[in-house]
Each structure stands twice: as C-alpha cells, then as structure tokens.
Amino acid sequence: MNCILLGPPGAGKGTQAKNIVKNFNIVHFSTGDMLRKARKSDGVISELLSSGQLVPDEIVVDIVKKSLERNGVERGFLLDGFPRNLRQAEQLDLMLKSKNVKIDKVFLIDIEFEEAVNRIAGRRVCECEASYHVTMLPPEKVGKCDYCGADLVQRNDDEESVVRDRFTIYKKQTEPLIEYYKKTGLFVVIDGLKDEKGVFRQISSYIL
Ligand SMILES: [Zn+2]
Fold this sequence. Notes:
By secondary structure, the protein is of the alpha/beta class. The protein has a single domain, classed as 3-Layer(aba) Sandwich (Rossmann fold). It contains eight helices and seven strands, in the order βαβαααβαβαββαβα. The strands form two sheets. A five-stranded parallel sheet has the order 2-3-1-4-7, sandwiched between helices. A two-stranded antiparallel ribbon has the order 5-6. The protein starts with a strand and ends with a helix. The mean pLDDT is 91. It binds zinc ion. Zinc ion is lined by residues 126, 128, 130, 145, 147-148, 150.
C-alpha cells in the first residue's frame, strides 16, 4: 500500500500519519521530519527554515528522492507533507515511474477553514512540552500547566492571523493538486470533523 496524505493545517494529519504507519506497518516519509534532519547538516536548508521561507521545490524533491532510494519502498509507504503543489506531484510521478512503483490512494483529511482556525488558535503549550486546547483539552487551572504549573503560551505560528495566512497559502497550492489527483481515480476525501478514531476508521476502510 503506497499512499499520500493531504490536509490543511489543523486537520490532524500528523496524528493520523502516525496511526497509519503503525497499524499497517509501512514506511513514513514526512518531509517535515526530513527537512528538520537535513537542517543539521545543510547550511542552505538551515538558513531557509530559520528565516521562515519556503524551501524551493528542487530541494524538497531531491530530499524525497534520496529518502525513497535509501529506505526501500517495498513495504509500502505513506507520504506526509509531500507533494505540496502540482509541480512536486509531477516530479513524484516521474520518480515513481522510474522505479515502477504506483500510488494506491491519495487521502485528503478535509476540514473547513473556520474549524481549522478554532482548533489551532486554541492551542496552548508549556515549556515542558505538554500541550492543551482552551476548549477541547483545557488544563485544570486556566492558563497553567497540569504537570509543572508553569504559564501556558500560544506559539506565534498558532496565532489567528498566522493561521489564516497559512490556510490561504495551503488552499492556493493544494487546489490544483486536488484536481490533479481527482483525475487519477485514487482520490478519497476523509471527513476531518470526526474524532481521531473516527477519522482513522474512515482511512482504514480504504487500506487493504
Ligand atoms: Zn508544563
């Protein structure tokens, strides 16, 4: 089983990616993780990430390519965070074609814009790495960590205006990608409003 997982910020993509690779024993290719690893040894990537810029397609494609070669894809794999736009999808097709490997399913975990904003803007974190949500997972005492008692903060990335920008960028990049995969017949929309188990159940029903 080779699949691609798409979804806007706040859709719970990371959580579901972990559930999928664990349950179906396939390899997890997360471009986020790959870039964080590459950052340590690559000055250019480090610079781009530190300044908050987007990493150019060529660099991301190259990292994915090397990773696919290194990790033997026979077991099946899940691509998470890639492709992000139409150009990357076309590059991926070329890569896989040369290896005679096919994608079986493309999942989109779908949630509405306002829901994404609510989910992300409500996140609070503690320096001890505990995380909360003001309504969905509140701490016992407002604004204080249950474990260490420290003040909870909102990450800059999670501020409402930043979330709105991220969602707009996501839409712009992903819409052509969705059209592209719809034509392949592999595309499946998953209702991201369900809880974690409900979302996973929907995805599992498509994995043989
Ligand atoms: Zn804490």
